Amino acid sequence: MFRIGFGFDTHKLDENHEFWLGGVLIAHSKGTTGHSDADTLIHAIIDALLGAAGLPDIGNQFPDTSPEFKGIDSKVLLSHTMDLISGKGFAIGNIDSTIVLQSPKISGYIPAMTETLAAVMKIEASQISIKAKTSEKLGFIGREEGISAYAVVLLQKEK
Ligand code: CDP
Ligand code: ZN
Question: Among 103, 128, 143, 144, whose CB has the most other CB atoms within 10 angstroms?
């Protein structure tokens, strides 16, 4: 009836890259590097959804060796993941997530991220929680070399 899933992702931050996070473009001197648009929050959510549904992970669904996915908007990957989830008869109960990022402060972007992700997943904004933390200047996140995100999701079997 109910299935929980957990997802984690991390990306390197570098100059001269766009910074996509939660489907929104963040204004910053650095951005995330990766094969797709490297949206760390969306990738964590995708893995949580796939894990809850008992499906193989993001790297299996969307190989980073495939030219098809080079530079792809992660919202497209999330939308495709929703098709996989629905295809197995699951609906989202709720999603909770935490972004770990030293800089910039992103709390002002959270309403836009929530609305954007809700629209892509065709759920209510009230079903998504996005939180942000620094790493208190510790480690690679503290040195502003990277970003991590964690997500948990509850799925409900509909049929
Ligand atoms: O207070 P505490 O040390 O637990 O948390 P923090 O990592 O200093 O973050 C304090 C608050 O800043 C968070 O609750 C977020 O609302 C906000 N924050 C943010 O907007 N953007 C970040 N990159 C990190 C934190
Ligand atoms: Zn990723």
Answer: 128
